[in-house]
């Protein structure tokens, strides 16, 4: 019911032991089978979700926190894998003479600053609007 959004059966009026059943699964002798793709019971959830094009706004190295602009899937306290973009852009976002706002890889034990903030044109996107 939850997986496919089925309404379920009636609570009374002859509905004995069939309140949460899916109902009919097909016709009778002809075609004599269940069509492929029929919504039936099965495992639900635990699917990997990938969200692309999220912008990293701020990194706090002391607390180990990454501030991301956009929706991050999963539960609170869940594990999230963050990586560089793998798709190629037709237009280069960072020309050759401009540094990338955050290090994508830190070699060795180089000391990073406590906070790294992306360039946003003077506005802090993490401040609440009043």
Describe the structure.
The protein has strands at residues 55-60, 65-69, 115-117. It is largely without helices or strands and 130 residues long. Strands 2-1-3 form a 3-stranded antiparallel β-sheet, with no helix packed on it. The mean pLDDT is 81.
H/E series, N to C?
EEE
Number of contiguous helices: 0
Order of strands in the sheet with most strands: 2-1-3
Which percent range describes the beta-strand content?
Answer: 5-15%
SSE order and pairing:
Blueprint: E1 55-60, E2 65-69, E3 115-117
Antiparallel strand pairs: 1-2, 1-3
Question: Which descriptors apply to this entry?
Answer:
Transl_B-barrel_sf; 130 residues; little secondary structure; Ribosomal_uL3; ribonucleoprotein; 3 strands; ribosomal protein; elongated; 3-stranded antiparallel sheet; Large ribosomal subunit protein uL3m
Task: Please summarize what this structure is.
GO terms for molecular function: structural constituent of ribosome. By secondary structure, the chain is largely without helices or strands.
């Amino acid at each position: 019911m939850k997986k496919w959004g089925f309404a379920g059966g009636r609570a009374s009026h002859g509905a004995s032991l069939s309140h949460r059943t899916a109902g009919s699964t097909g016709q009778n002798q002809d075609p004599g089978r269940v069509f492929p793709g029929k919504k039936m019971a099965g495992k639900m959830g635990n699917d990997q979700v990938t969200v692309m094009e999220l912008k990293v706004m701020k990194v706090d190295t002391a607390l180990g926190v990454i501030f991301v602009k956009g929706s991050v899937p999963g539960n609170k306290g869940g594990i999230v894998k963050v990586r560089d973009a793998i798709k190629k852009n037709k237009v280069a976002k960072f020309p050759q003479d401009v540094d990338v706002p955050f290090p994508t890889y830190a070699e060795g034990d180089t000391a990073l600053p406590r906070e790294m903030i992306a360039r946003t044109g003077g506005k802090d996107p993490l401040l609440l609007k009043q």
